Each structure stands twice: as C-alpha cells, then as structure tokens.
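Data deposition worksheet. Section B asks for the primary sequence of the deposited chain exactly as it was used as input, without tags or linkers unless they were present during the calculation. Section C holds the resulting structure in token form. Section D is free text for depositor observations; keep each observation to a single sentence. Incomplete worksheets are returned to the depositor.
Section A, Depositor: J.P.
Section B:
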Amino acid sequence: ESKGYEHWAKINNLKEAAKTLNYLTENNLLQYADLEKKVEDIHSSYARTGEDLKRIEARLRQVQPLIKNISNYQRLKPVYDAYMKAKDKPAFRAKHEAELVIFEAAKSTLLAMQGDQKLPSLKALQAEQQRLTEEQQGLYDERARLKKEMKQIDTIKANVDMLLRIDEDQEQRQERSSQRE
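Section C:
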C-alpha cells in the first residue's frame, strides 16, 4: 500500500513541478527576484482593489439616501405647497398625512445631510450611482480574478521554494560526503 502511495506522490510531485516550470517560462519568470516581484505585484493589486471598493461603497452609501430623499422631496413638494395654502390645514393634513410625513422626513434628512448647500441634481446623482455601481462590479470581477491569480502564484512560489530547498539539501549532503572522503 505505501508503495502505491509513494508512486502516486512521485507522479503528483512531478506534475506540480511541470506546472510550476510551465508557469515560470510562460510568464518569463526566470529569476527568483522576478518571481518575488510578481508575487508582490499581484498581492498589492489585490489590496488596491480592496481599497478602491471601500471608497466606492462609501460614496454609494452617501449617494443612495440622497437620491431617495431628493426624489421623495420633489415628488411630494406640490402636496406640501398645497397644504401651506390650504384654508383648513387640519382637514388637509388628515387627508394627506402619509405624504406630508414622508415629505417632512425627506426635508429634515436633506437638511441634516446637506445643510444650507444647494441640493445636487437628481439626474446627476442617478448617473453617478450608475457609474459607481458599474465601477464596483468591475472591481468585484477584478478582485475575483486577482484572488485566483494570487492563489496560483503563491502555490508556484511555494513549489519553487520547496524545489530550491531540496536542491540545497542535496548539495549539503554531497558536500558532507565529499568532506568525509
């Protein structure tokens, strides 16, 4: 049974070594320093996409409530204006209570978010949200690709490190045996 495993392990190790050598030659990583640089580049690209995603998601968290509240404010402003002109305010309010509550909530939220600043255009915010969402999806895709590439390059580097250690061990054994002679 252990002979079978030994045979499988040797074949598996040879396959891994072949994959590693193919990757190294296909990517022109013929110096160890080049391999280390590639590992570092992929890891830093992965980290950068994470930072970019955080920035975009933070902006989306600002834009989305603005869109919702500006939309409610604009949609219900005519109801509020009619209320302000109404002769019988309590009766008007009773009839339009839900709309007025939503309008007033939107108005106070926008005031808290924007202060006295002019409200941004709803169309511009929606365009920004669309752009940010597309950018976010692109970054998710890029990040998934980089994660896969990172796993691959880390395995390649571990294989190279293991092969180099095996070579060093063999050299040290040869040195010791030649010293004994």
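Section D:
The mean pLDDT is 92.
The longest helix spans residues 122-180.
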